[in-house]
Design a protein that fits this description.
The chain is of the alpha+beta class. The chain has one domain: YhbY-like (Translation Initiation Factor IF3, 2-Layer Sandwich), CATH 3.30.110.60. Helices cover about 30% and strands about 20% of the residues. A four-stranded mixed beta sheet has the order 1-2-4-3, with helices on both faces. Strand 1, helix 2 and strand 2 form a beta-alpha-beta unit. The protein starts with a helix and ends in an 18-residue tail after the last strand. The relative contact order is 0.22.
Length: about 100
């Protein structure tokens, strides 16, 4: 589970990213899940979009895709979304740690 500070950090990193995954009129199908899983082989953070032809809510589509790829949904803004899945060995993105209050 990501904290709000970590979400803000990841959102800042995703500003410069291009859209890698697009959810089309067929929704979150096996092809979309496979494409996203393959994209996570080379990157930890990716940006996606939900096309206007999709009747489902973009938040629901992004959440479903996050669950099926075992990633974390960072943010949904309009029809764009950001997913995060750290590498198991040697993560590239180091998230800010939450300080414990005394």
């Amino acid at each position: 589970m990501l904290t709000s500070k970590q979400r803000a950090y990841l959102t800042g990193l995703a500003n410069t990213l291009d859209v890698v995954v697009q959810i089309g009129k067929n929704g979150v199908g096996p092809e979309t899940v496979q494409q996203t899983a393959e994209a996570f082989n080379t990157r930890e953070l990716l940006k996606g979009s939900v096309l206007r032809t999709v009747e489902e809510d973009p938040r629901e589509c992004a959440q479903t895709l996050a669950e099926r790829t075992r990633s974390e949904l960072v943010r949904v803004t309009g029809r764009k979304f950001i997913l995060y899945k750290p590498f198991k060995e040697d993560p590239v993105i180091v998230l800010p740690v939450q300080r414990k209050q005394p």
